[in-house]
Amino acid sequence: MRIDVVTIFPEYLAPLNVSLVGKAAARGLLDVRIHDLRSWTHDRHNTVDDTPYGGGPGMVMKPEPWGEALDSVLASDPGRRPVVVVPTPSGKPFTQELAVELSAKPWLVFTPARYEGIDRRVVEEYGERLDVREVSIGDYVLAGGEAPVLVMVEAVARLLPGVLGNAASHQDDSFAPGPMAALLEGPVYTKPPEWRGRGIPEVLLSGHHGKVARWRRDEALRRTSLNRPDLIAGADPASYDRKDREMLSVLGWQPGDDGRFWRTGEGVEE
After folding, report:
1. Bind-site residues for S-adenosyl-L-methionine
2. What SUPFAM superfamilies does the entry give (predicted)?
3. Is the predicted pLDDT of residue 270 greater than 90, yes or no?
4. How confident is residue 264, by pLDDT bands cut at 50, 70 and 90?
5. Catalytic residue (choose from 158, 219, 222, 244)
6. What pLDDT score was predicted for residue 170?
7. Structural contact between residues 174 and 223, judged by C-beta atoms closer than 8 angstroms
């Protein structure tokens, strides 16, 4: 996979050289290219922003340098069409499902903005001929789009074949897509078996794979019920098996007339 990032702060993307992403790049699984947007400015101040039409606070990133930058990146491989990812608080939520979808694309171009964002005409221009995604990593506002790029690149890169040491590691991730309901991952433990007077659940020492799998599923339901009840309430009822339903009942959930679960609010075990 090739990943290009156009930014006014190339140094912000230095973490892409370390950890899983850096190792994947070193092994040739990723081709990461960082571009300084100011390279496509033509005044002595390397200006990339200007005041907004209509007035208001803040500055808006100018379309000219963005247009030249994107044209240059696209011209480097004219036979392919990348997916352009625009990090913005006003975009669609970035989810594990979207990470999986993007991980199947051969080329991604990220356009992290600063100030009040990029002149809208840039998105319109490239949206007419490319797959442009406006994506948000959460309901909050950051100083710029570089941090969201780091989040999204890592989420996507770890799904690429060969990046993780264990190819099956991501299959049990929180929010991992599949036939079962999307749940948060439950607690995990490693050696030693006792630490500061705290042991680990006996079932994990039993060697009984079926019981271990059921315990992990129950703990995932418990954690999701506590931290993300919206995931349980919004899930397809068919994604829960009989044992899931028994556990949900213990946690205070009951099926409604439409089959979906709702919180009773009484007798909740957490």
Report:
1. 137-142
2. alpha/beta knot
3. no
4. confident
5. 158
6. 53
7. no
Place of tokens 């100083």: 143
In the residue annotation, 158 being an active-site residue is answered as: yes
Name the binding residues: 137-142
Euclidean distance between the first and the last CA atom of the chain, given in angstroms as a whole number: 43
The one catalytic residue among 101, 116, 154, 172: 116
Q: 148 with 112: CB under 8 angstroms?
A: yes
Q: Which of 173, 228, 245, 260 is catalytic?
A: 173
110-136 pLDDT, tens digit each: 999 999 999 999 999 999 999 999 999
Tell me whether residue 173 is one of the annotated catalytic residues.
Answer: yes
Strands, sheet with 131-136, edge to edge from the N-terminal-most edge strand: 31-36, 2-7, 107-110, 83-93, 131-136
Place of tokens 């909740």: 268
Residues 106-144 as b/e (b if ≥16 CB within 10 A, e otherwise) read ebbbbbbbbbebbbeebbebbeeeeebbbbbbeeeeeeb
116 is catalytic: yes
Catalytic residue among 10, 15, 63, 89: 89
Q: Which residue has the tokens 């780091």?
A: 150
Closest-CA residue to 217 (of 258, 176, 247, 252): 247
Q: Tell me whether residue 257 is one of the annotated catalytic residues.
A: no
